[in-house]
């Protein structure tokens, strides 16, 4: 059964919700800032081929103060962008990871409480090894889904939209090609991811059953 997106965060406390909000904002900021490096790369290439002060072109060794000033300006912008990317990626990743671990801990406590409420007859009908493995797997999948995978999805979607906007602003034809190719790329990535997750789930269940048989 597929749970709603907001339902995945029902175990979050107000403090955890604040962490998630901050992490989402910084992840979106990272997705917007990341494609800007391509603009700075274009400016850097232009700055490297600026003619010398007397009109000659590199590699002739003459005065080139104007080119030096442009290269220095692009380099300083790159440093600022690198700092922004480092801060936004770190805060977004750490914030959502801490929030996911706290929610996973709350989920484990709820599951343990419900398991302890079961009677001896219920446990006699279950396989302890398979049950423990399934318990650990489900909690880990939950933690990954609301943690790193969630912020990765935000960053990728934001970067795709930003790249599309920048492409249309600089070269509409390339932007159109990119816009037509994004749905196909997204579908292929989604299909490959679903296949991988299904295979991992089947393999995990097989390991759990094998562990249960070996424990008998």
TrEMBL record:
Transmembrane region(s): 20-41, 78-100
CC annotations in GO: membrane
Keyword Transmembrane helix: yes
PANTHER family: ABC TRANSMEMBRANE TYPE-1 DOMAIN-CONTAINING PROTEIN, ATP-DEPENDENT PERMEASE MDL1, MITOCHONDRIAL
Lineage: Eukaryota, Sar, Alveolata, Dinophyceae, Gonyaulacales
Alphabetically ordered keywords of this record: Membrane, Transmembrane, Transmembrane helix
InterPro entries associated with the record: ABC1_TM_dom, ABC1_TM_sf, Type_1_exporter
PROSITE patterns tied to this protein: ABC_TM1F (PS50929)
Name of the protein: ABC transmembrane type-1 domain-containing protein
The organism's place on the tree of life at top rank: Eukaryota
């Amino acid at each position: 059964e597929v749970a709603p997106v907001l339902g995945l965060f029902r175990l979050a406390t107000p403090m955890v919700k604040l962490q998630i909000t901050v992490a989402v904002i910084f992840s979106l900021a990272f997705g917007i800032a990341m494609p800007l490096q391509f603009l700075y790369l274009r400016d850097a290439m232009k700055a490297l081929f600026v003619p010398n002060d007397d009109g000659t072109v590199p590699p002739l060794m003459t005065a080139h103060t104007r080119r030096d000033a442009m290269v220095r300006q692009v380099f300083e912008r790159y440093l600022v962008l690198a700092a922004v990317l480092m801060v936004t990626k770190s805060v977004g990743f750490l914030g959502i990871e801490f929030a996911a671990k706290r929610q996973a801990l709350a989920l484990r406590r709820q599951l343990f409480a419900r398991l302890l409420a079961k009677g001896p007859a219920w446990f006699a009908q279950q396989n302890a090894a398979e049950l423990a493995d399934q318990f650990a797997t489900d909690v880990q999948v939950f933690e990954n889904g609301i943690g790193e995978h969630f912020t990765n999805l935000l960053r990728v979607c934001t970067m795709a939209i930003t790249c599309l906007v920048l492409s249309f602003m600089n070269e509409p034809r390339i932007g159109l090609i990119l816009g037509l190719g994004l749905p196909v790329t997204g579908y292929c990535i989604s299909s490959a991811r679903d296949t991988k997750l299904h295979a991992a789930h089947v393999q995990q269940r097989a390991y759990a059953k094998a562990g249960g048989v070996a424990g008998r």
